[in-house]
Amino acid sequence: MLNRRSFLGLSTLGAIAACAAPDRDDWDTQLIVLRHMDRDPGNPVINDLGRRRARVLAPALADLDVDAIYAPDLERNILSAEPFAQARGVTPTYIDTSRNVTEFLTAEAQGRSIVWIGNTTNLDEIWEDLSLPGDPPKIYGRIAVLRRVGNRRWFLAEERRFSP
């Protein structure tokens, strides 16, 4: 027979286990987010380092499924997405970011794995809208892998860094 202390201890362990992030096999929706590649201040296009970094994005995400690639319809984002899209054989979709990007991406991602190559402003908005911990991947070469199980909350499953 369980005494009160044992019951409370087991109850607490159960509650902690229920709050833990699901195992990799348990998630069904994935949103991989990162900032466009490097650019010089005031220059709207990516620089040489950014072009080199764009070429190594595919190897950095080689172990992750990608069903679709999305980015703002800005030249720096398009130049950042193209080498990755070509390497993965996926046609990227470029969107107008005047709409609610988070709402659009979470709907598009449902049951799939998608990549968002964004900008600092929309990365901040995604983080705020999804109530994610820490900072969004606004530093060049940082990747955040977000996952969701069914209609549960999004969670930060993994952070990566990549460089040429």
In short:
With 164 residues, the protein is an alpha/beta fold. It contains six helices and six strands.
Structural class: alpha/beta
Q: Given the C-alpha coordinates, what overall shape results?
A: globular
Number of strands: 6
Could you state the order of secondary-structure elements as H and E? Answer: HEHHEHEHEHEE
Instruction: Could you tell me the CATH topology label.
Output: Rossmann fold
Q: Which strand order does the major sheet show?
A: 3-2-4-1-5-6
- Gyration radius from CA atoms, angstroms: 18 Å
Largest sheet: 6 strands, mixed
The overall number of domains is 1
Low-confidence stretches: 4-24
Our measurement of the CA-to-CA distance between the termini, rounded to an integer number of angstroms, reads 61 Å
What share of the residues does DSSP label as strand, in percent? 15-25%
The CATH superfamily title = Phosphoglycerate mutase-like
Helix content: 25-40%
Number of continuous helical runs: 6
CATH architecture: 3-Layer(aba) Sandwich
Oligomer description: single chain
